Amino acid sequence: ILPKNVTIIEVGPRDGLQNEKKHVAEKDKLQFIRSLQEAGIHEMELTSFVSPKWVPQMADAKAIVEKSERVGRQFVLAPNAKGAELAQESNANSVAVFVGVSDSFNERNINRSTDESMDALDPVIAKLKNDGVFVRACISTAFYCPYEGKIKQEDVLELCRKFVSMGVDELSVADTIGMANPVESYELFSSLKKEFPTILITAHFHDTRKMAIANIFAALQAGVDRFDTSAGGLGGCPFAPGATGNVATEDVVNMLDSLGIITGIDVEKVCIAVDGISEHVSHPIETGMYRLYKNS
Ligand code: HMG
Ligand code: MG
């Protein structure tokens, strides 16, 4: 049985833009965020408090959070104590920490081994929870790593157990380079739903090999009712070579609509948001629903 309702967590302003070569102006990011909220999106990753030397596109994080309308959960990413501190100073109500299952990816992304990152995050998460902040943990390379290949399911579960024992509210489990297949998706998400029945479980698929929508359907069958998606299919991690964008919000919502699953999101309004950002990114946007919208 499929879930009746699904929550979409829009990651376009963060995952979607972090890898964009052209600098996107603060006002254009804010307009993108506003138009996505107008489409009915209530959970969104707005930006990241990361080193501006590592990810220059996110250097305006403080202004983006402070100038965005508070609608539901407004996530900001934080890789360490400094990021969490900046997030709290800007009054973000939800923080996303992130770690890779594989050391080689984590070292390239955060400059630490996975264990070093986890040790450093333990007190950071404790403080956030103590201050009443919603904490989401993003788990990268949960299926494949660009440097180490296939990842063992047990290693993913073990990392998730550590995060749960630290008190996180949500696990967002990612196919960073878009290599998972639907059987792998079903198996991992079934195990996660079974082991962590009281934690929010979210699936985060990149669409590098065009299997993301099939993987989402498999995750739905495993009982997952939360998905990270990106308007226009924008996105990619600068430290995961070969990875392309996230699965497109408008295409996922369209599939869910056609299955009678409620998201509260208006596909046409998402396409309007995509249209607005399209002139500010350096590649054409060619998702299924956006193309139909442009040709209608
Ligand atoms: P480091 O060089 O080891 O950091 O980088 P450090 O602690 O040694 O500090 C060096 C400098 O950075 C210092 O400044 C710090 O103050 C500053 P300086 O004294 O040289 O002027 N610094 C910071 N500045 C702003 N915000 C901070 C911060 N921390 C330190 N939070 C660090 C370590 C984590 C900072 C760096 O590696 C980094 O910023 N990495 C970010 C990588 C990133 O953003 N990746 C993309 C997001 S994850 C993703 O996309 C995957 C996901 O979508 C799921 C999936 O698909 O897999 C979530
Ligand atoms: Mg991602």
From TrEMBL:
A GO molecular-function annotation: lyase activity
Domain Pyruvate carboxyltransferase positions: 6-271
Keywords of the record: Lyase, Metal-binding
Entry's family note: Belongs to the HMG-CoA lyase family.
Stated name of the protein: Hydroxymethylglutaryl-CoA lyase
Organism: Sporosarcina quadrami
Organism lineage string: Bacteria, Bacillati, Bacillota, Bacilli, Bacillales
